[in-house]
Amino acid sequence: MNFLTCFKVPEVAKSMAHLLVTPEERKIIEIIEDDIYSIKDLSTLIEKKFNVNGEELVRKMYKRAVLNKVEVSDGIYYKTSEFYDRIAYFCQYETDIWLSVPRKIRDEIDDWYVTTYAETAEPRVKEVIDGKKDVIENAYFFTLQETLDLIDSLDKQIYSVPCNCNAVSQRCEKDKDVCLLFETGINTQWDRGHGKLLTKDEAKAIVVRADKNGLMHTSETDQAICNCCGCCCYPIRASKVIGTTGIWPKRRYDIIWEESKCVNCGRCVKICNFGAFVKEDKKIRYVEEKCLGCTICSSQCHVKAIKIKKI
């Protein structure tokens, strides 16, 4: 089985797939195919084929998401990852190489990624809608205060990583090191050797800065706090693909704009990700049907002309 097949590389990415792996990694993937190996057996196999430290290369490939871990009854084994897993890590941590890929190809891969994510998420979203599951990732929009309170309530370690949505899509220049993660099990960023450990105060400072810069907060409380924008955010973009806007991430607040208090500064126009506030003839206008209820406009309105109402 050749590398492109083993690694499940989509057609749109075949011209750049060689950038994702080293020549040695490519050959190892073709040898492994669909099998799983203990680190000892895989290291031995590698050392027979290449003049390298096998265990060191296995760990490096795992860190780069070229390999994944799988837990079986007698321990942890390794298997080949696939393009869908690898591309986000590649874009997050090998950004210069990603940016060397022509923009047209990057955009096609970005579109493929959104569509693929939407297809995998749709059954899980349906389970939530049908009451068979409580939450999935990025389940709710959180207010700024709710996000800060969530951080205070956590009894897990918090670490930050570059936003995978922004890293892949590269659609804007907003802050990138704003994803706060809590999970540390196999195949997580932390287990692979990524992430900066944060104090709660450091985590809250990231959230406050993100809010000021127009990044929305979503969470399910168990895995992560995502601070992302409307143009890059994969859950928001995927929800448009599967028709679940307002359901996932779930809208929990209505926005109440008090025109009499508005000083027409235009801050809300700049902060809103969906064009729900517009400025015409030096006057602000609220376009309610465009609002997704993320609430960052309220926390950033300095004259308190924007309130929120729990649905």
UniProtKB/TrEMBL annotation:
Residues 253-282, 283-311 form the 4Fe-4S ferredoxin-type domain. SUPFAM superfamilies: 4Fe-4S ferredoxins (SSF54862). It comes from the Bacteria. It holds the Pfam family Fer4_21. InterPro entries: 4Fe4S_Fe-S-bd. This is Iron-sulfur cluster binding protein. The lineage of its organism: Bacteria, Bacillati, Bacillota, Clostridia, Eubacteriales.
